[in-house]
Amino acid sequence: MKLYFSPGSCGLSPQIALREAGLDFELVKVDFGTKQTQEGDYHAVTSKGFVPALQLDNGDVITEGAVILQWIADQHPERQLLPALGTRQRYKAMEWLNYIATDLHKGMAVMFSPFVDAESKTRFADGNLGKVFAYINEHLSTHDYVLGEQFCLADGYLYNVLSWPSRVNIDITGYTHIQTFLARMEQRPTVRAALIAEDVRAA
Ligand SMILES: N[C@@H](CCC(=O)N[C@@H](CS)C(=O)NCC(=O)O)C(=O)O
């Protein structure tokens, strides 16, 4: 199995998930600028040109980070990386996956866009992303992880995207429950190993 990623991108969370599931995988780095990998044109893997993509041993390719996480969790249900299919808890996890993928991830993507000017980014960060950070911070004030006491793969995705704000000059250090969550996640061996594999330091 191959995970296509770019360092510092949303490819981190499926890598954490693969490690949590104990699955064997190979990392293939995608150059954002050229869309090339060591194998050639990344568009041959997915015409979307976006990471992450997970290529299974049979050649099938799964895209969309939130869906890749669910596929990984469902390979080893006994590890309880997501709640069981069909349960109310599973839908709570899916609510979080969707919220992280849309409001948070795609909101943060605006801050990296070369097509948005600096002033608009500042207004967007204050007016839009601020509410998202505040909601997450409030939730984490009474929950160690998004579902409560137990880690699930949505936490890896949340950690992944919440590690980006400082790169675009958004200061989230005042959201103390988010900070506690990030520190908690960085205690996980799978997170540390994934960061090292991407050659990005947690500290
Ligand atoms: N809908 C996709 C979006 C993935 C995405 O936004 N990937 C970004 C990195 S975090 C990307 O590949 N960007 C490449 C580019 O903008 O050229 C998902 O949820 O997996």
Can you describe what's shown?
The chain is an alpha+beta fold and 203 residues long. The protein folds into 2 domains: 79 residues, Glutaredoxin; 103 residues, Glutathione S-transferase Yfyf (Class Pi), Chain A, domain 2, CATH 1.20.1050.10. 48% of the residues lie in helices and 9% in strands. It has a 4-stranded mixed sheet, covered by helices on one side. The protein has a two-stranded antiparallel ribbon with strand order 3-4. Helix 1 links the parallel strand 1 and strand 2. Helix 1 packs parallel to helix 2 and helix 3 packs antiparallel against helix 4. The longest helix is centred in the middle third of the chain and has 25 residues. The protein is globular, with a radius of gyration of 17 Å. The two termini are 29 Å apart. The mean pLDDT is 96. Glutathione (GSH) binds next to helix 3.
Key structural traits:
7 helices, Glutathione S-transferase Yfyf (Class Pi), Chain A, domain 2, two-stranded antiparallel sheet, Glutaredoxin, binds glutathione, 203 residues, alpha+beta, single chain, 48% helix
Which helices and strands occur, and which strands form pairs?
Layout: E1 2-5, H1 12-21, E2 26-29, E3 36-37, E4 40-41, E5 53-55, E6 61-63, H2 65-75, H3 88-112, H4 118-140, H5 153-162, H6 176-185, H7 189-197
Parallel strand pairs: 1-2
Antiparallel strand pairs: 1-5, 3-4, 5-6
The protein binds glutathione (GSH).
